[in-house]
Amino acid sequence: EVQLVESGGGLVEPGGSLRLSCAASGFTFSPYSMNWVRQAPGKGPEWVSSISTRMTHIYYADSVKGRFTISRDNAKSSLYLQMNSLRAEDTALYYCARSPRSLTFDIWGQGTMVTVSS
Amino acid sequence: DIQMTQSPSSLSASVGDRVTITCRASQTISKDLNWYQQKPGKAPRLLIYAASSLQSGVPSRFSGSGSGTDFTLTISSLQPDDFATYYCQHSYSTPGTFGQGTKLEIK
């Protein structure tokens, strides 16, 4: 079964850090660009970041640029998101998503919740 | 950034109805438009990519059309499983903005 499983979410104070992980299974991970997409409670999805197959092309939403870092380990079929200087507006369900073509998300994980609050 | 505007924001319909949801981009995006379905507590599901291509496993009652700035998602005959929220999203350039969603409810 093709699957993405996120982990690492939780409650963090403003200014804090978290590292999200996404484990892929059921498909060959390395040929696909991967993404993080978040969804705040009651809102629509919002693209956060993308990384190409060999990490040569990395993109971020303006809202997270300079604070978040995306990375991947093809040997471990895993995607990561290091989130620093977290803000209340970063509170959301964070999804890992696969891209068979640019900015198109065909497989999604179940999401991991990040809550930024004091 | 390119803005995506969906209409209507909500829609009541009955099983068997034909339903159309529209999406307008703030600038031309060729055919770089995707449609997703989302049910409560679940991740979005890709239905249509490149404006009119049906994703594998998606029922043929779903179809998409359009190019440039105006796009439509049509469900030819609503089934009980189709009541959900639908989002358009452009893939023309980052940040690949989503529309605000259309909630499809049972009449």
Give a structural overview.
- The complex is a heterodimer of chains A (118) and B (107).
- With 118 residues, chain A is mostly beta strands.
- Chain A is built from no helices and 11 strands.
- In chain A, the strands form 2 sheets. In chain A, strands 2, 4, 5, 6, 9, 10 and 11 form a 7-stranded mixed β-sheet that branches.
- In chain A, strand 7 and strand 8 form a beta hairpin.
- The radius of gyration of chain A is 13 Å and the shape is globular.
- Chain B has 107 residues and is an all-beta fold.
- Helices cover 0% and strands 48% of the residues of chain B.
- Chain B is built from no helices and 10 strands.
- The radius of gyration of chain B is 13 Å and the shape is globular.
- Chain B starts with a strand and ends with a strand.
- The model of chain B has no long low-confidence stretch (mean pLDDT 97).
- Classes of the chains: A mainly beta (118), B mainly beta (107).
- The interface between A and B is medium-sized, with 19 and 25 residues.
Q: Given the helix and strand composition of chain A, which structural class is it?
A: mainly beta
Q: What is the count of β-strands of chain B?
A: 10
Structural class of chain B: mainly beta
Q: What global shape of chain A is seen?
A: globular
**Widest sheet: strand ordering of chain B:** 2-10-9-4-5-6
Helix/strand order of chain B: EEEEEEEEEE
Which consecutive residue ranges of chain A, at least 5 long each, have pLDDT under 50?
none
Number of strands of chain A: 11
- Biggest β-sheet description of chain A: 7 strands, mixed
Radius of gyration of chain A: 13 Å
Note the overall shape of chain B: globular
Distance between the termini of chain A: 39 Å
Strand content of chain A: over 45%
